[in-house]
Design a protein that fits this description.
heterotrimer; A alpha/beta (459); B alpha/beta (99); C alpha+beta (371); A: 459 residues; FAD/NAD(P)-binding domain; 37% helix; 23% strand; globular; C: 371 residues; D-Amino Acid Oxidase, Chain A, domain 2; eight-stranded mixed β-sheet; five-stranded antiparallel β-sheet; 26% strand
């Protein structure tokens, strides 16, 4: 299969890009691991009834996408992208591939890992996980469900869960003191896109009115035999223990860089979010000629920014493929770029208000969940000369599991940096290679048989 | 706990026991709704694990689905009659091949 | 920075340099091991982990002999490294296999084994041919595919966890008083000897250049000509599986953790460590023919590493005639030879003369004036 544009991810950015690209006559293939479009923020949007204007706009965007003529494959897990534009994925147990003149990576964001003692116990999940369960299965919290952490998604989920009839035992606000003061310097920017502030305040008020305890806390621990049974935390000068059946953690979201890292795209350190993100220009172009990135995967901006970036990227791609004159491209993109800048104006404020929590895990807290490598083992390895995450991987197996560092890259880097006394940006991150998602040896072998059938190698 | 008001029209089996499920939800969501939190024990230490991220990133929600081990249950939609079992340690590909 | 003076400075903290360094330190020499940072090309990351004599030195009896020598020292070496690492480095010597798939491969395998058997000095260690029946007797319960017609078995071969081995060597080196200095590449080495790295100057009576692909540049500074080029090898590993394959084979082995490691490609003159679908798919196809149940196993990680390859694939050990005390050691079978490097080679370097066993492995076999 050959297409003009392959889009990886059918969230707000991918959907907007595909629709826009189709409007300019490009052939488009969209691949998403989920079984319906929407990504995270619009998850299961087609199956749900619209609750507000945002939902209605999302459903409209998905309708336009469905009608656009883009070829959409769901249940399609991409595991390799080549710089020359070939994309490999698995669908129903079979590996497939397509050639694209341009590839748009719109795989979004992932939760910033928050490793607390006991976070691997069944019953501890992320706020994002609970939101997915709510959106796709209508699951609501009941009976001793606690939230811990900080960030807009935590507030949003709590509000949504309560509105759906759920009950929350309490929220542990882990943000350090003084966050508001640090954020105030960026307030003018935030006021350019006042809806974000208004929403955040509304969510916070809704929780207060519902009587959900909001506790400024620290040093949360999840405890229990074989599953979560209680939480322990420090607050108001004392240590408190509460029964808990579910603990939902959240410390913001960061760009998902698995594919861009494996591709070898250049990445930049985002000091505000304290994370790595791919280097992109205003059109979303990466350091590789055929690879474009849009949405939260290029830098956290939220759904509105993602849609705008998706459209801007598609305009750039259409022009690059000769389907749109540059003047027309610029004219169409100008209002989108202006709107995007307005929405992005709130980011410095949010980044300061919800600055990532300090990662200072105790020695026996697990950092790498897959291989069960503790913070103590990481510190030991640094003492033995490990300077970065790759040597660490060699010495401790951290990062060698199937998640390929999705849940430990940021925390391992923070612990190495602290142990070495250097900035996190100076710690070499895990070097990733395709496949970025597992596939069976049988699927791989079948690709070889196919290739052999076409062009037998002299062995 | 995570619960839902309507139990769902489908039925899947977990370790032989029927579990209600809703069309369109993942296996992991259905099991969570039934109060099942631990889907496997790790191959490293035998520790119990269950869903953490629900989006295919953490690989902690692995279970044996219709005889195939190592399946990310948060990415698989439920199907009527689906058989799900806990995965104990490393998956046994040789046994799966025979079954 | 003030210059410190060591008995020996080893440049390169990979499989070869670390072994030589630990050998020197454990013999009482004041040694410093200089190593690059986290993104070193580090061929050691590509090691399959085989402690392997089979097929070695086909056409080069000196290499077969040197390999045999290393295997002789490996048991004691493994014990010492495990003790230093504080954990089992996964060293198992119960035999190693080279599978033959199909009639043509089986015929070739038999011919190769016979040829090496008839070579002067013979193979490094004894090798037996096993037909399908004999293989099944050796590996009861191992689900071999129908195309596996036989294999050659070297009963003295085995494998080790190469990463734990490297860790063990670094730990043993420090424990023996060695100065381990990771973090930066060496800029220059000068006669006398001084090693220069950024602001640092390190002085030593002897210098050993064991810097893999970085060896030629540094060796040239001391008048030694060493030709090394990169050959990429891609590897992949599966999720953890219950025991399937009790003995390592040349391209497939199951580690102590239960993951099955599959290799290895041989791609000349590539300087980047990306993986390619074509090679991974080829390796997968072969692995699935050897053990069909693996078709259902998932690959969770793949990587590429660059082997330092000499023109005839055999190691190069050089000793400068002009600058006494300058040595070069480069090879791609750093795991198998680790015991020899930590043993007779380190001892000989400290005594001032490369061992007789490696006399035929000098760079002058390529260029008369190489050292």
């Amino acid at each position: 299969m050959r297409v003009d544009l392959a889009v990886i991810g059918a969230g707000p950015a991918g959907i907007a890009a595909a629709t826009e690209a189709r409007a300019h006559g490009l052939s488009v293939l969209v691949l998403d691991e989920n079984h319906a479009p929407g990504g995270r923020i619009w998850q299961a949007i087609e199956a749900r009834s619209a609750k507000d204007d945002d939902d209605r706009a999302a459903q409209e965007a998905v309708r336009a996408f469905r009608a656009s003529g883009a070829e959409a494959r769901f249940g399609a897990t991409v595991w390799c992208v080549e710089p020359e534009g070939r994309v490999y994925w698995s669908e129903q147990g079979r590996a497939r591939d397509a050639e694209a003149a341009q590839v748009l990576i719109a795989t979004g964001a992932t939760e910033r890992p928050l490793p607390i003692p006991g976070w691997t116990l069944p019953g501890v999940m992320t706020v994002g996980a609970a939101q997915i369960a709510l959106k796709t299965g209508g699951l609501v919290p009941s009976g001793d469900v606690w939230l811990a952490g900080q960030g807009p998604l935590l507030l949003l989920y709590a509000t949504q869960a309560l509105a759906a009839g759920g009950r929350i035992a309490g929220v542990l606000d882990l943000a350090p003191r003084g966050a508001w003061r640090r954020a105030l310097a960026h307030l003018p920017g935030a006021l350019r896109a006042p809806s974000y502030l208004a929403r955040g305040l509304a969510w916070r008020l809704a929780l207060r009115r519902a009587g959900v305890p909001w506790i400024r806390a620290a040093h949360v621990r999840a405890e229990g035999e074989g599953r979560l049974e209680r939480i322990r935390f420090a607050a108001a000068g004392g240590i408190h223990v509460r029964p808990a059946s579910l603990l939902l953690l959240h410390d913001g979201v960061i760009p998902s860089v698995q594919i861009t890292r494996a591709l070898g795209c250049a990445h930049l350190w985002d000091e505000g979010l304290r994370c790595w993100k791919p280097a992109t220009d205003a059109w979303g172009r990466s350091s590789l000629a055929r690879i474009v990135i849009a949405g939260d995967g290029a830098g956290i901006g939220g759904a509105a920014v993602a849609q705008l970036s998706g459209r801007i990227a598609a305009l750039g791609i259409a022009a690059a493929l000769g389907r749109l004159a540059e003047a027309a491209r610029d004219a169409a993109a100008a209002p989108l770029i202006a709107a995007r800048a307005r929405h992005l104006a709130v980011r410095p404020f949010l980044d300061a208000l919800f600055a990532p929590l300090a990662i200072e895990p105790e020695d026996d807290t697990i950092l790498c969940r897959c291989e069960e490598v503790t913070a103590g083992r990481v510190r030991e390895a640094v003492a033995l000369g490990c300077l970065g995450a790759n040597q660490l991987k060699s010495f401790t197996r951290a990062g060698m599991g199937p998640c390929q560092g999705r849940l430990c890259a940021s925390t391992v880097a923070a612990v190495i940096a602290a142990a070495r006394g250097v900035a996190v940006r100076d710690v070499e991150p895990y070097r990733l290679r395709f496949p970025t998602k597992p596939l069976t040896l049988g699927e791989l072998a079948a690709l070889h048989e196919q290739a052999e059938a076409v062009e037998p190698q002299a062995s | 706990m995570l619960t839902r008001p309507d139990t769902g029209a489908l039925t899947i089996l977990f370790e032989g026991t029927p579990v209600p499920a809703r069309q369109g939800e993942s296996v992991a969501a259905a099991l969570l709704a039934a109060g099942i939190l631990a889907f496997r024990t790790t191959a490293v230490s035998g520790a119990p694990r269950g869903p953490f991220c629900m989006m295919g990133a953490c690989f902690d929600c692995l279970a044996v689905v219709d005889g195939v081990g190592g399946v990310q249950t948060c990415l698989v939609p439920v199907r009527e009659g689906m058989r799900v079992e806990r995965q104990r340690g490393a998956r046994d590909v040789a046994a799966e091949a025979v079954a | 920075m003030m210059a410190e003076r060591f008995d020996v400075a080893v440049i390169g903290g990979g499989m070869v340099g670390s072994a030589i360094a630990v050998g020197c330190a454990r013999r009482g020499a004041r040694a410093v091991l200089l190593d690059e940072g986290d993104v070193a090309l580090r061929a050691a990351r590509g090691n399959f982990g085989l402690v392997w004599s089979q097929g070695k030195g086909d056409g080069m009896p000196a290499y077969a002999a040197w390999t045999r020598e290393s295997l002789r020292h490996w048991d004691a070496f493994a014990d010492a490294m495990s003790a230093a690492a504080g954990s089992d480095i996964g060293y198992r010597r119960s035999g190693g296999l080279v599978f033959a798939l199909g009639e043509e491969e089986w015929a070739q395998r038999q011919e190769d084994v016979r040829r090496l058997h008839n070579q002067i000095g013979g193979p490094s260690t004894p090798v037996r041919l096993l037909d399908r029946r004999a293989l099944e007797d050796l590996l009861p319960g191992t689900p071999l595919g129908p195309r596996v017609l036989g294999a050659s078995l070297a009963p003295e071969d085995g494998h080790v966890n190469p990463l734990l081995l490297l860790r063990g060597m670094h730990a043993a080196f420090r424990a023996a008083g060695g100065a381990h200095r990771p973090g930066a590449a060496v800029d220059a080495v000068r006669p006398g000897f001084t090693v220069h790295r950024g602001e640092e100057t390190i002085a030593a009576d002897r210098v050993v250049i064991a810097a893999g692909l970085g060896t030629p540049r540094l060796a040239a500074m001391l008048g030694m000509r060493v030709d090394v080029h990169p050959v990429r090898g891609q590897n992949m590993v599966t999720e953890r599986l219950p025991p399937l394959l009790p003995l390592p084979a040349s391209a497939i082995r199951q580690t102590a953790e239960g993951v099955v490691q599959i290799g290895v490609s041989y791609e000349e003159n590539l300087w980047e460590t990306a993986t390619t679908v074509a090679e991974l798919a080829r390796m997968a196809a072969r692995a699935v023919q050897v053990l069909p149940p693996l078709a259902r196993a998932r690959v969770v990680r793949a990587w590429g590493a660059l082997r330092p390859m000499t023109p005839d694939r055999y190691p190069i050990y050089a000793q400068s005639r002009v600058h006494r005390g300058a040595y070069v050691a480069v090879c791609h079978s750093g795991v198998t030879l680790a015991a020899a490097h930590a043993g007779p080679l380190a001892e000989a370097i400290l005594a001032g003369q490369l061992p007789d066993l490696v006399a035929a492995l000098g760079p002058e076999r390529f260029h008369a004036d190489a050292a």
